[in-house]
Amino acid sequence: MAAGLLCALLGLLLLDVDIVYAICRGRCFGRSVWTAVGCGDLDVYRQHILNAGVCRPVEVNEAAANTLVTSWSSHGIGWLAERLDYGAHEGFVLFHLYYGSSTYDTKQMSRLLDSVIEDCKEQGIQTLTPNEIARMKATWRAERI
User: How crowded is the C-beta side of 106, counted as CA atoms within 13 Å?
Assistant: First the structure.
């Protein structure tokens, strides 16, 4: 898709930030340095989720770790469970549980979009104007979980 058409589609983002993010992710990441190192769109999206840092730390019994990961990840593709280390208690492990972008508040979604927009700019893909980006961020509404 040509960059001009991408911009027109991104202009529709005012209706749904997730749609614009998906379009940008698909067009930008498909020809980015991420692809050159073997990362697919989902890997790149998940890396942006990790970079956004919207998570909660938890300590869980090691015997329940796989169940936790499976359960948490079942909420969506951006819901990540990252095992960090052994817990302070014997037989426990530490995780960061990352929330999917659909739950982000305006500030969190702004960080995620800034990261994606920066990726696009690095690839020479035109993005929205600063005013359009600001308006898009202001219209974001998170889903209630």
Answer: 9
Element (H, E) at 18: helix 17-29
Residue for token pair 């840092």 = 53
User: Taking a C-beta distance cutoff of 8 angstroms, is the pair 105, 142 a contact?
Assistant: yes
pLDDT digits (tens, 9 = 90+) for 73-98: 999 888 999 999 998 899 999 999 99
Q: Measured between alpha carbons, how far is 21 from 143 in angstroms, rounded to an integer?
A: 16
* Ranges of residues in the chain whose predicted pLDDT is under 70: 1-41, 126, 141-145
Count Cβ atoms within 10 A of the Cβ of residue 8 and give its class: 0-12 exposed, 13-18 middle, 19 or more buried.
Answer: exposed
Q: Where are the beta strands (DSSP E) in the chain?
A: 55-61, 80-86, 92-98
CA–CA distance, 125 with 140 (Å, rounded to integer): 23
Distances (CA, A) of 97 to 71, 82, 94: 11, 6, 10
**The tokens of 26 are what?**
């698909």
Judging by beta carbons within 10 Å of its beta carbon (0-12, 13-18, 19+), is residue 14 exposed, middle or buried? middle
